[in-house]
Predict the 3D structure of the following.
Amino acid sequence: MSRRDGESVGVVTIVAGRRAHLARQLDGLRRQRQPADHLVIVRMDQDEVLTGTAAAERVTVVDLPPDGIDDRLRLAAARNLGVRTAGTHTAVLLDVDCIPGHDLVAAYARATAQVDGLVCGTLRYLEPGCPAPGGEWTEEQLVAGSREHPARPAPGPGTLVRDDQHALAWTTSLALRSSTFDRIGGFDEAFRGYGGEDTDFGFRAAAAGLGVWWSGDAVAYHQHHPTQSPPVQHVDDIVRNAQLFADRHGWYPMEGWLRAFQDRGLVDFDPERGVLDRISAEPVGS
């Protein structure tokens, strides 16, 4: 496997567009106190991927284009492909818009050696313009130019705390043993397009008796980018995936977004009656 065999760590990132974000993520991976053994980049578009050097002992780029059904991005399938390709003891899922703090790989390696479950690191959200486009940056600048997510646990440095909030175990930054990933069954590839697949993964982990731990040392910095709230450009995906989730788990995820879509006349949503229907096919942006 690698120089650490039973302790090897693979980082998986999936990418469609976002090449500037990927470049900063690779820069962060080059600065790790403990480099990753394998970096797997799953490319879901046709743009070139420039990996440079020393982001990990080994770097692999694999392709997973949109499906031939409706051209939706296959986020669940991409993560499954990435973890399988990494072939390491620990799999770290890191969204392409996240810059890893210098101790992220080592912290996740320590945590998954201690506990068998889902390990989530602290997420800090960067303000616009931080780091400066094309410029040099330090982690001290990232700390100063960011804030913690208000809804997520953020334990202090050197701590690993169990707090089984499976709904907050986002794949934005998440680590687990690859054997545990297989035990859960990976991501359900019936979820296509945007939304729901990571919540489903977290609750299937809960059903398997796996806890959630929060690491104070595995810090990731989420890069700012324009967003729509609610994300009306993904309304069809969200409606489809929310209904799929409800059919399997008995409740609707992403309820805040669904109610916002209802306020805009885009859906009919009544969770008490089990009703979720798309009622407007008007263009909703991109």
About this structure: Residues 28 and 285 are 33 Å apart (CA to CA). The longest strand covers residues 211-222. The chain has eight helices and twelve strands.
